[in-house]
Amino acid sequence: MKKITVSTLTLFIISLFSFSTILAQDTHTFVGVKKCGMCHKKDKIGNQLKIWKNSEHAKAYITLKTPEADKIATEKGFKTKAAETPECLTCHITSYNVEASMLGSKFKIEDGIQCESCHGAGSDYKKKKIMKNHAKAVANGLTEYKDNAAIKAQCLTCHNDKSPTYKDFDFNKRWAEIAHPVPTK
């Protein structure tokens, strides 16, 4: 009986080690909007960078540094400033609460809600040769949305009843303001 227990425990430890190694290999890192914007700033592919720059998402972190945001944080019972409150940061910056090793050298939290908040950490799909093949990009970490219902579900992870502006959130109106498709050729 003791042999079986030791063997089972040994097998479990080896399996756990192998699983964690697989997970480590599949970990994508966040590269930041500047990296994404290098290719997504041309009109012929939809100028997604310009759309983002003109959106509230680009200002999401800066918004937390305002007296109005601090007032909302206080009203919600938080003891810290909005820009230091985890419940606020979760939705106002990309990649909140991830290991520092998951952030690329060009990544800045000051850029607010960046491309990778919705599209997934881009380290493994950022290259042009990968992005030109949609299936390959998805296989390398790009989050794919099948329809507007899937996009809305992603939006509602932040624009929900915990948000002070939730009652004013109209998905169709907001999506029309930030839609950024790649034009078909």
Task: Report what the structure shows.
With 185 residues, the chain is an all-alpha fold. It has a single domain (29-178), classed as Flavocytochrome C3, Chain A (Flavocytochrome C3, Chain A, domain 2, Orthogonal Bundle). Helix content is 47%, strand content 0%. It has eleven helices and no strands. 20% of the residues are buried. The model is unreliable at 5-25 (pLDDT under 50).
Summarize the structure.
With 185 residues, the protein is mostly helical.
Q: Which regions contain 5 or more consecutive residues with pLDDT less than 50?
A: 5-25
**Helix segment tally:** 11
Identify the overall geometry: globular
Q: Which bin fits the share of residues in helices? A: 40-55%
Question: Structural class given helices, strands, pairing?
Answer: mainly alpha
Secondary-structure element pattern, one letter each: HHHHHHHHHHH
Average pLDDT for all residues:
86
Distance between the termini: 67 Å
- CATH A-level architecture: Orthogonal Bundle
> What's the CATH H-level homologous superfamily?
Flavocytochrome C3, Chain A
The largest β sheet comes out as:
none
The CATH first-level class comes to Mainly Alpha
Instruction: Determine the CATH topology.
Output: Flavocytochrome C3, Chain A, domain 2
Please tally the β strands and state the result.
Answer: 0
Radius of gyration: 20 Å
Beta percentage is under 5%
Total number of domains: 1
